Amino acid sequence: MEDTAITYKQGISLIILFISGSAIIFTPGIAAKQDVWLATVLAMLFALPILLIYERLLYLFPHKDLFDILQITFGKGIGKIISILYVWFSFHLGYLVLINFGDFISIVGLNETPETVSLLCIIVLCIGAVKYGIEVIGRWGEIAVIFLVISTFILIILSINNMDINNLKPILYNGMKPVLKGTFSIFSFPFAELVIFTMVFTIFKEKGAPKVYRKGLFLGGILILITSVTDILVLGASIAEIYYFPAYAVARRINVGEFIQRIEIFTSLVFLIGGIVKISMCLLAASKGVAKLLNFKDYRFIVTPIGIMMVNLSIISYESVMEMSKWAVEVWPYYAFLFQVILPIIILAGVEVKRKRVKSI
């Protein structure tokens, strides 16, 4: 199967887009209310050891992705069983992000347009990107991340007049329980979802230990921290908790001298760019996994069927945005914990045990 090399800078750009693109619009960890900033910082700290596991696997097995590592470490039987689980997780996460897209477009924009049309337009872009490969996506990501950062900071600067520092007070008014709940929520979405990149990152042009995960976590986490605090400063915790898309509501309130207003299109573009990257990475991971499970030489010919399946499931899985939001808040963090934390720890333990056995022979 053909592997293409990307630079560390491209890898970090893709991680930033993956982390912040879809999360910025939602204000993850809003359960912590005005202490969402503290929950975000704690989530970054808790995510760091897990991301170091991902980096360790990438370092120990150059030119190999997670599916290769599983079969090398556990053999074809157990390796393929765990690979199937990760193919499902990638596929599942991909169509969940598609659902978010469909809901966003239906709620804030094209109310009369069938959701299927919007989803098909998005998946066609993702399918095209995945077929071109990770190298092309990486080059595009270098440019897209600049737009994301500039747009985000422009929106924040223009929102200063609407901010109220009192919305961040009192600190820890409800104790640590809501903060820990928000921390767990942010940890699972979006930080630990970076496990997807263990299935798509294989070769970097630079030599040495890759630090793309921790650098991407830091930069993407800072963006989420800043935007989450902005949402609370402008809307207040109680109002931000009501909105499905708080960042969009913040952008709608911008009005500078009756001249600069109605610029929420920038928020939509940020969400679009980040979401396309996230769906593309999930689609790429699922396609590569299926190809390796079935011993295909190339994954590209199965990208389109898997993409269409994502659209189909995104249409029939949930009846409303309320049902989807409830599942994402109450079920997803615990469901994803298996794939994001438990299995990676088991995999790394298996890798280290096998390395010691090989050295002792």
TrEMBL record:
The chain crosses the membrane at residues 12-30, 36-54, 85-110, 116-134, 143-163, 183-204, 216-245, 265-287, 299-320, 332-351. Signal peptide: none annotated. It is found in: Membrane. InterPro entries: Spore_GerAB. It comes from the Bacteria. The keyword Transmembrane helix applies. It is a multi-pass membrane protein. Keywords: Germination, Membrane, Transmembrane, Transmembrane helix, Transport. NCBIfam families: 2A0309. PANTHER family: SPORE GERMINATION PROTEIN A2 (PTHR34975). Belongs to the amino acid-polyamine-organocation (APC) superfamily. Spore germination protein (SGP) (TC 2.A.3.9) family. This is Endospore germination permease. It comes from Clostridium ganghwense.
